[in-house]
Amino acid sequence: MAVISVWRRRVGLPPVSVILAVTAAGVATLPLLAVLVLAVTGSGADGYLQHLASTRLPGYAANTVLVLVTAAAGAALIGTGLGWLIARTRFPGRSIFEWALALPLAMPAYIAAYGWLDLTLAAGPLGALPTVRGWWGAGVIFAVTLYPYVYLLTRDAFLRQPPHLEEAARALGRSGASAFLTIALPAARPAIAAGLALVAMEALADYGAVIHLGAPTLTVGVLRAWSGAGSLADAARLAVMIVAIALVLTTLERAGRSRARTAGQRSQPNRTALGPGAALLAIIACLTPLLLALVAPLARLAWHALHSEPARNVWNSSLNSISLAAVTACLAALFGLASAYALRSGGRFAAFPVRTAMLGYAAPGAVAAVGVLAVLGTLQSGLDRAAGGIFPVLLTGTVLALVFAYLTRFAAAAIGPCEAALGRIPPSLDEASHLAGAGPVRRFVQIHWPLASGGILAAALIVFVEVLKELPATMILRPFNFDTLAVVAHNYASDERLGQSALPALVLVALALPAMAIVARQAIAPKRIEVR
Amino acid sequence: MTRPLLSVRDARFLRGRREILSGVDLDLPQGGIVALLGPSGSGKTTLLRAIAGLERLDGGEISTPSGILDNQTAWVPPNRRGFGLVFQDGALFPHMTAVMNTAFGLNHLAGKARRDEAMIWLDRVGLAHRAHAYPHELSGGEQQRVALARALAPGPRLILLDEPFSSLDRSLRDDLRRSTAKLLAASGISALLVTHDAEEAMEMAETIILMQEGRIVQAGPPEALYARPNSRAAARLLGPANIWTGTVREGGLDSPIGHVEAPDIPDGETAHLIVRPERTRVGSGDTFTLVTRTFRGGAVDLVTFAPDGSEWCARVAPDGLPESERAGLSASPSDVVIVRD
């Protein structure tokens, strides 16, 4: 009875959004399923996995754990500290640092790694410092490039905490530090956990930095199984291990985020003004991560770019990178918007495909690529059997496969922001426009789009930046002779030709930084549309 | 009697397993304001939303003289019902100016005519000078007036008001109530006002419908409802009341304020005596113990205890205040109501 009445009451669901949401779910989950199936049923190269298990695999696993733990510890320290500083204190430049501190997300970890390794080699300008390499070096690089995930979420959490909590603790005789440790910090714990899960996911997905710094993780193993041993099934078996870790991290992130969200409304921030000495320290604290993540490695690369032969094919690979990133960003935003709509209008019936699509985020690039190869390979052989080979290499080894893999991973990244953007529009506005006779099209054009376009644009830009930075999936799936900036930079760097690697790396960051700046400014803007 | 503007018959609404409306019957007359009064969770907002067409009933029927709006087989979408709705939060479109908001529903007009009509309505709510302000630049009261203009501009047959004044401060609220009532009377549009504020309902409405737990408890003009509640729940909804429970003996209740006739209730049954504090007279005597006196400007509220331990409140003029800590309470038989539930 109740079910029927719910069905009946579900009025005016635009079917397009549900179709797109289901497509997004398929795009996101098919490769993951294919990886699982392949891992269980596929026949690998003879004895490769056994050989690997007795030689390299323990090292991969150990590196993965060490790198993730180091990255998480560093990011927790930097991100939480800065989050609190920005949310709770006032000092010159605070409002600029508020968004600028998110900018390191535009910096691919591998580019930071190129710069830092070169700076700290014995012959480099900072040779006196310990050389940034190995698991701790990779961990530190991830900490300084990925801490913004923790920073953004904890800043939000600190803003949501009623300022009176800490004041009450002070009034009860606690010192400022004690009030922070016993009141503010525990309340922000879910947000910190969610941010750290994102940091760990990104570090787990990385290929370029860990291989450059000589700390190969499981992701490197996947690529080697595929490119070295040529065994997709063995790559899939390694990929399953990564997915297992990633799923644990996603669950952690989801749980943290939902608890963080219930922790109260954002109140009018009540910021302590810092004295001149403390303000100077705060400014230094804010500048340091920017210096470490962006300025130092980019300056080193710029110096190299000026002092060596420029790389060839930078122009072509820029165009490739931009068009791939733009196409994927638009498709992801479309999927994200459709999913958000399906959730808004379809209730529980639409939630399933959308939540399924979110799973795609648990597929690091290398895993997504292996999955896409498996899916497309199956399709291709089916096509060949049916049509007698008149569609040679139609699917694998094409740009289509690349976009597919990117969407598997990044469509999920667009769903969240789109959902948030639409979710901020109070349902009473929809009802008011409905009563005034506006149909779904007019409602979208006149109400939803003007109010949510900022968030939807941000969603597209997040995907744009992520695709620009993406390396392992591109390495596996790119068509022959098709280069992106990331691939060119990586190939030169792995040939120890940092001079040639520098220019494509700089162009990549130059493209990503403005996009990230827009996203960052959007992310720190007040979240609620004030109806009253 | 003329045909009602809108009829609701046996309306049922479920949210999950919970019954929000359990068989509501309601007739809205042509013209005038009807108030739907009840505590939060009584289903009054759901009923309003069902009438607006924002929720669909799980059973029962909503109809107008021109046809059925909602039953198991028929359904008219909200935009074809010709009703206006003012939301509790105003629901002004934040990216549109006051005049754009007001013009939003004027779909039959275009261009200058549309703008002019919107301006006329803004003028009627006294906000022509704020036409180009965005909602966040308007005060709470101004926003609610724009919301009212937006709902009235398309010329609805009925306007539904969902606690439109509840988020405003007191003085502003009184002001806006009066101007709204005046505007509605002038434009001849019928209104259904949902509120949990008894004072607001009594001030604005010609008819009050009391709702509790998804049912209508009592309906009628404010004076009759206030003076002759048909149950303890109805009495409490409209204001403070002394309620005393006892068993009927010899055709009446022997209460601390005296023997009160209860001719319709057989002996031995439990019944409840209801009398409003301002109808409770304080005289000489020593059966009641005075506990607190609260000065309220024109009157003083007394709380007293009867010999049986029951609490009785009385509102008296300051000059009629007893000197001692003991007093006698009574009430005229015409001010006392006896109910069975």
UniProtKB/TrEMBL annotation, chain A:
Where is this chain primarily localised? membrane
Report the membrane topology from the UniProt record: Multi-pass membrane protein
List, for all copies, the residue spans of the domain called ABC transmembrane type-1: 61-253, 318-519
Q: What is any Pfam family matched here?
A: BPD_transp_1
Xref: Gene3D superfamilies: MetI-like
Kindly state which keywords UniProt assigns to this record, in alphabetical order.
Answer: Cell inner membrane, Cell membrane, Membrane, Transmembrane, Transmembrane helix, Transport
> InterPro entries from the xrefs?
MetI-like, MetI-like_sf
- Where, subcellularly, is it found? Cell inner membrane; Cell membrane
Q: Has UniProt tagged this entry with the keyword Iron-sulfur? A: no
**Parts of the chain that traverse the membrane:** 12-40, 60-87, 99-116, 136-154, 235-252, 273-299, 319-338, 359-380, 386-407, 449-468, 502-524
According to its UniProt record, which protein family does this protein belong to? Answer: Belongs to the binding-protein-dependent transport system permease family.
Q: PANTHER family from the xrefs?
A: FE(3+)-TRANSPORT SYSTEM PERMEASE PROTEIN FBPB 2, INNER MEMBRANE ABC TRANSPORTER PERMEASE PROTEIN YDCV
- Recorded protein name is ABC transporter permease
Its lineage reads: Bacteria, Pseudomonadati, Pseudomonadota, Alphaproteobacteria, Maricaulales
From TrEMBL, chain B:
Domain of life the protein comes from: Bacteria
Q: Does the keyword Transferase apply?
A: no
The protein's name: ABC transporter ATP-binding protein
Q: Where is the ABC transporter domain?
A: 6-238
Q: Report the Gene3D superfamilies cross-referenced here.
A: P-loop containing nucleotide triphosphate hydrolases
Q: Which terms are listed as keywords in the entry?
A: ATP-binding, Cell membrane, Ion transport, Iron, Iron transport, Membrane, Nucleotide-binding, Transport
Q: Which InterPro entries match?
A: AAA+_ATPase (IPR003593), ABC_SmlMolc_Importer (IPR050093), ABC_transporter-like_ATP-bd (IPR003439), ABC_transporter-like_CS (IPR017871), ABC_transpr_FbpC (IPR015853), P-loop_NTPase (IPR027417)
Organism whose genome encodes this protein: Hyphobacterium vulgare
The molecular function terms of the Gene Ontology recorded here are: ATP binding
Query: Could you tell me which SMART domains the record lists for this protein?
Result: AAA
**PANTHER family on file:** SPERMIDINE/PUTRESCINE IMPORT ATP-BINDING PROTEIN POTA, SPERMIDINE_PUTRESCINE IMPORT ATP-BINDING PROTEIN POTA
